[in-house]
Each structure stands twice: as C-alpha cells, then as structure tokens.
Amino acid sequence: MAGFFAAIEEDTRVKLVHIGLYAALMVYWQQHGRGRVIFPPPRQIMDMAKVSARSTYQRYLRELHAYGYIRYLASYYPPRRSAILLLDVPSFGQNPA
Questions:
Q1: pLDDT value at residue 92
Q2: pLDDT (tens digit, 9 = 90+) per residue, 22-56?
Q3: How many other C-beta atoms are found inside a 10 Å radius of the C-beta of residue 8?
Q4: CB atoms within 10 A of CB 14
Q5: Three-class SS of residue 82?
Q6: Residues 6 or more apart from 72 whose CB is under 8 A from it?
Q7: Which of 76, 25, 73 is nearest to 51 (CA)?
Q8: How many CB atoms are closer than 10 A to CB 45?
Q9: 3-state secondary structure of 18
Q10: Helices (H), the chain
C-alpha cells in the first residue's frame, strides 16, 4: 500500500473516493487469502469505502484501472463477481517494469 500512496502523492487525478476504494480493496485482499486476483462483493467494498451508489463504485473502479492502480475485469453476468487485480504501483510518471 506504500507504493500506492507514494504514487498518488503526485497524481492529481486521484480523489478521496479512489483512495477509499483502494484501501477497501486492500483490506478485502488481506482478509481473504491474498490471492493474485480477488472477487470482492461490491456491497461489502462499497460499505467499507463509504460509497453509496453502485454507479459511483463502478466509475471509480474503472478510473483506478485506467490510471494503472488496479486491473478491473467487470462481469456483466450478475451471479459472477467482477475480478480485480491489485497491481504493483510504480512511482507516478515511471513506466512499470
């Protein structure tokens, strides 16, 4: 998580909601075996991150994906949860190795 905070220090695109979602995803990851890919229940992450609208949740996950902090593979099939991969975060402005 230290890499994330170091990267967002200079990344003006990242807002408080992004930070809350990322922190909630990290907590979920730590509590559920630390696998490479997680399949978190949206409501649980939304509650932890204090996000009330599903559209807001999805929007900010897509932005975290676009900014390179996570890999978000949305599931459009209700019984199947979306997959999220927490990426190694390089310092802002550097290319990942």
A1: 44
A2: 999 999 999 997 888 999 999 999 999 999 999 99
A3: 19
A4: 20
A5: coil
A6: 61, 62, 64, 65, 82, 83, 84
A7: 25
A8: 20
A9: helix
A10: 2-8, 16-31, 42-49, 54-67
* Burial category of 53 from C-beta neighbours within 10 Å (exposed 0-12, middle 13-18, buried 19 and up): exposed
- In this structure, what token pair is assigned to residue 80? 């199947």
Long-range contacts (CB closer than 8 Å, 24 or more residues apart) made by 80-88: 81/39, 81/40, 81/41, 81/42, 82/39, 82/42, 83/37, 83/38, 83/39, 84/25, 84/37, 84/38, 84/39, 84/40, 85/36, 85/37, 85/38, 86/25, 86/26, 86/29, 86/38, 88/3
Distance between CA atoms of residues 25 and 87, nearest Å: 12
Q: Return the H-helix or E-strand segment holding 72.
A: strand 70-73
